[in-house]
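Narrative summary of target 7.
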Amino acid sequence: MTRMRGMGTDGAATMMGRHNGVIARLKTITPSAIGVHCAAHRLNSTSTQAGNSVSYVKKFSDIICQLYDFFDNSAVRTAGLEASGKLLAPCSTRWLSTERSVNRLKKCFISVVLSLQREAEERSDAKAVGLNSLVTEYRFVCTMLLLCDALPHVVHLSKCVQTADCDYSIIPRMVSSTVHALKQLKTVDSVNNIMMRLDTFFEEIANAGIETRKRYNLGEEYFKQSIKEPYLDNLIGKIEARFDDKSVLASFDIYNPAKLPSLPDNPCTEELKAFMEYGNDEVNTLADQFQGVVADSIECQEEWSSLKQFLKENCAELKHREVILKLCCDLSWTVIYPNMSILAKICRVIPIQTADVERTFSQLKLIKTRIRNRMSENTLDSLLRIAIEGPPIAEFPVAIKKSC
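Modeled conformation, tokenized:
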């Protein structure tokens, strides 16, 4: 336990609580340990909170859930959607599932509305009448297209932070790119602007015999001021707030050679002063955080002064991850820069996401069902390893023979 340096969590109060959380208690044993809120969980919370902050977007999610229940509870109704695909239910505990459910609804929107109208006319189904009235509102269609535009950017960012190669140095750039793409959706002249494609979509559903309603004259201007702009502003603001990382972890970015200032030939310039001072505050922060694990800040500063000179002159083409690996694995680097090597190893072991753990939980639920509840731990462990780390069954290298 005393060698623990970092712990990834889902951000729950039980884990991150300031006084009695798991991380707070672990710090009484190992003060240098760092608690990390999973980046994928942060994005999911951001998306959910941004939706809940706009009343109609929250209502939109409730309507999708009602639509899913209406069709899922009837095999006959579901069969009518098979050509377009079955509806998907949004779930707050499944990361960004709203994006998949909204895109599926857009894909089979015409089939859904026609099915609701058929149920209302032939069976006098009151629920079908109510749902048809809700989904044919002008603002419902606009909100659906808005989410189809905005959420894929957040999903792409979530998938990036879940990859094995992702590290802290590239997250700020990915977040900045996502925020820029979302801001473009707000501009009138953007090619991705939702308002530029509304007429085309409304024309498609009108050709299918579906008439949308503008309730109480709630048209384009209302949608823009009351739904679109507040939702995008909330989404952008919450992403920037949750990823405005000025913590100890951001200090590890000093290992990125691309961010080193230029090294001038003239020893008496401001550029040289900027180069000599670059990273000093970050090294002090890391030395203070991992006090007792590395030497004092003075010795770390001496190593850093030599390392950044070496990186600028000989390793300018290396990426942040490659420098970290060199400091961790290359014996010559670890001997010359022992403290910088220890900090690099800490950077490698601190998790930025807990997606792997969540996938294990999901596979566990699929493998150990109620019927197979007496499965031994060894069998369960082997099946989990195959399911998570192994290739697909069709490509599995071991030949499986069926018993006669």
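The first strand starts at residue 6 and ends at 9.
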